[in-house]
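Sanity check. The docking grid for 5'-O-(acetylsulfamoyl)adenosine depends on where the pocket ends up, so I'm generating a full predicted complex first rather than guessing from homology. Inputs follow.
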Amino acid sequence: MSEESLSHDHHTFPADPAFAAQANGTAEMYAAAEADPEGFWAAQARERITWAKDFETTLDWSGAPFAKWFIGGELNAAYNCVDRHVENGNGDRVAIHFEGEPGDTRTVTYADLHREVCKAANALESLGLGKGDTVAIYLPMIPEAVVAMLACARIGAPHSVVFGGFSAEALNTRINDAQCKLVITADGGYRRGNPSALKPAVDAALDHAQTTVEKVVVIRRTGQDVAWNDSRDVWWDDVVAPAAETHEAVAHDSEHPLFILYTSGTTGKPKGIFHTTGGYLTQAAYTNAIVHDVHPETDLYWCTADIGWVTGHSYIVYGPLANGATQLLYEGTPDTPHQGRWWELIQKYGVTILYTAPTAVRTFMKWGHDIPEKFDLSSLRVLGSVGEPINPEAWLWYRKYIGGDRCPIVDTWWQTETGAIMISPLPGVTTLEPGSAQKPIPGVNAQILDDEGKPFTEAERVGYLVLTKPWPSMLRGIWGDPERYRQTYWSRFGPEYYFAGDGAKYDKDGNIWLLGRVDDVMNVSGHRMSTAEIESALVSHPRVAEAAVVGASDEMTGQAIVAFVILRMDHDDEAEHLDGDALVKELRNHVAKEIGPIAKPRTIMVVSELPKTRSGKIMRRLLKDVAEGREIGDVTTLADSSVMNLIKDGLGAGGDEG
Ligand code: 7RM
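Predicted complex below; grid placement will be based on this.
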């Protein structure tokens, strides 16, 4: 859409009074939080969470940037997500409607979930796992993934979920960094109609002389053959089925680590973001209530994220389950067995709240509105978006064709680091502005700073998004690297400001528009990947001397990975005979093996030189111009300004994904 048609069509959507009358969020919350931020959060913590021991102090920020929330409080996250709902007489309420990719289904009530979590907690303890031990979870989207996470939380063993699409190498790095004692995996999962193995990646990840892993617990999902290490591997069924059905949920300190989740940073090494129990659970439950407007008695909620990402942690596991909601858990992809699968599921289950990513919305737009139009989507009442900016066209399409022109859309900005939603409209309260995440939620404070670190509020000026007050679900650090935590988030603009790494601007109405990453992190289909990480994967191939990776804007995926590689001249290896397309294919597969299929570059261009400054820094800005087919920008700081001509001239020697 051109700017002209955009402004011509410019349209906002005031809250519907009927929706407002039943909404969990209210306009008064903004004022209450502003008047007394700590009092506001303390009230949320006491209203939404059951504490075994009440906290004495809401916030200790004296060790900034290391925060402590709800000090002195004790709680058990699994108790809050499961036991208390059963104790309150809601054991028969469905917690999870599971829909496997092949069409197999399971219904898990809160009483079922309670039994399964207790058994799994007993089983993990019988394997020698205890409080403070770390556990890697590498699973498909099956109910056992939720059970495994909650069983870890119950016994105080921080989990580190690794996305099932990551490679053995990526899994190995994460297991080692967190010194995991146990891995929970499956034989495989289903992907686009076929079983896809998981266990071999775990075997390969542990195939090193030194590992801290003592046991690997394997869930049978696909029934495929698996290699077996008798002294290390145990079947989930063999330890969980015979375990006792009750397990005492011992309360943990509010600041006890709940989980570690790795995310891409500006250097190659992923950061182990860790969250603790009380603050995280409070904000996950609070936001799921006021932003998604979950009403546990009546809603059927569906978050389409994978549990391997933070969205799955906060909005499949901890938020909705703490609230006692009923949700759909779906294993598969949107196009298997047909492109209407999601809409078929919404119709089948009567989904009322759908939380998904802009990349999915854009894909559905491409497939055409006649597909969702074949299904009854009238049960929907709230739509959510997360992971990247949602462009106004996609927002309007989502509202019209999925939301029947009636559902509020909440565009939710947050990060692995923030733990829960930070900037979003409130349905029933906010007048919606398509394409903007609009305003910090009650209790959260954000500003936009200029290059000098000065806050400004003028409209349409681009700056850096910062958060100006600690919040309960903020990361407590980077696992094992407190200095990197301080450096990455609290130094760019001084210790007063949390630097999110995103560009942002205000519009004339004071709405915040997020404009994408300002660091060397790409956002591909809502997944964060660092340029450095993919560059090192490429350079680890014997044919590659040097590599530079940029995120080029892409209509479907937001950004796409484009790599420029210089080949080695002295190669004498098995890949030597490859050239042109075969080599590009080989390099793409190599990246998939090193990191995972999601990290495969869309395009690899073989070049003879890379543009560098005099101090030897690769000028990715110029490569981005090439990757996006633009006129090349200012080359005056290049050490050798003829390089860009060389690159442009030599662009025949590369290839796109077939
Ligand atoms: C939840 C999640 C975080 C990065 C963040 C942004 C981008 C996320 C939005 C968004 C614009 C949004 N965690 N991002 N949500 N950009 N509007 N509503 O995605 O750690 O994986 O990524 O994602 O750049 O910094 S994440």
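Relevant for the grid: The chain has a mean pLDDT of 93.
Also worth noting: The first strand starts at residue 57 and ends at 60.
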